[in-house]
Amino acid sequence: MEKVSETKDIVEYIRSIQEGQWKANLLNVALELNVFNVLLENQKLSSTELANKCGVKFHRPSDFFNALVAARFLDRDQNDLYSLSEISQKVLNPNNYEHYMVPYFIWTTSRAFTLGIDRFKQLLQSEEIEEKVQLGSEYYTDVPPPDFFSDAMHGVSMLASVSIPQLEFWKDFKTFADIGGSKGTVSVQICKAHEHIFGTVCELPSVQEKCEQYIKAQNLNDRLQFQELDFFRQEFPEVDVLIFGHILHNWPIETSQMILQKARKALNKNGAIIVYQAFLDNEKKNNFKSAMMELNMALMGKGQEFTEQEILDLITKNGFSDARIHNDKSFKAAIAFKRETD
Ligand SMILES: C[S@@+](CC[C@H](N)C(=O)[O-])C[C@H]1O[C@@H](n2cnc3c(N)ncnc32)[C@H](O)[C@@H]1O
What we know:
The protein has helices at about 5-30, 35-40, 45-55, 60-70, 85-90, 100-110, 115-125, 140, 145-155, 160-165, 185-195, 210-215, 255-265, 290-300, 310-315, and strands spanning about 75, 80-85, 175-180, 200-205, 225-230, 240-245, 270-275, 320-330, 330-335. By secondary structure, it is an alpha/beta fold.
């Protein structure tokens, strides 16, 4: 006999998928129509005022704005005036950059990740990979614009920027380098949390201006610097901690090995590496986000995600000791050390 509660759970699960897509579409359209920036400037507006300022000519604009209220992106008061909700104030507000998630949202729901249903299907039915994102030096300079990409990565790495500074071991170290550290999302938070630490963001030149502006805006010029570095051509700086966030998953395994060997060579004795990206569970069954990241990496290039066991094995094989997974609620990183005796 069918259990009613199970049917309800299954129906709810399917509905939550459909609602997620509706919310994503609604939010993308509201962003394109500038709804949040208009409300940032004007605080509270009626439906007609908001519609006029956003170019909404639709015959019942309040339906659109009320959907945004129901999705918790807007609030509406007793006088039917609309304002930003708490969620929008926090993560859709460019003035609150530390928590700003708009480029991340646009990137993950409308630009990357299989580039829409038609292209997704086409890629699965062919032997090609997404032609704009072939491996090679042009990958990170041409597609997408580097400033948009680094702002999108800022949102992707927000949990890393909260969790990594909280690692116990920073008290034992003085220097770090964030290889491919984008505009410095994680590096900035490490330096803010630990006044004795000096850091370097090592990146391609396309990110330099954005990164230096961000460091300056955070008043960290004296302890955090940008260094132009191409990890295919150059060695890494000699530091206590090397960070690789969403780096190894972009490339074939041979490149990951090359990067880890360079890291082993550059690291000070007893130093540590931190590797974070979307690790798969060992069974490859239970982590939807990581499974989609793995598929995305395969469709868009020749990269891959790793299971937790695979990343620990890879790090260990390349000369590091005491490899372990740091597990902080929804954020995971692989950590390992270069021991005196290695
Ligand atoms: C997926 S992003 C990760 C950014 C950041 N680590 C994070 O987790 O948010 C990969 C970064 O690697 C950088 N990158 C790509 N190829 C590189 C190379 N050959 N040398 C140095 N950095 C590179 C890109 O510019 C990009 O910012």
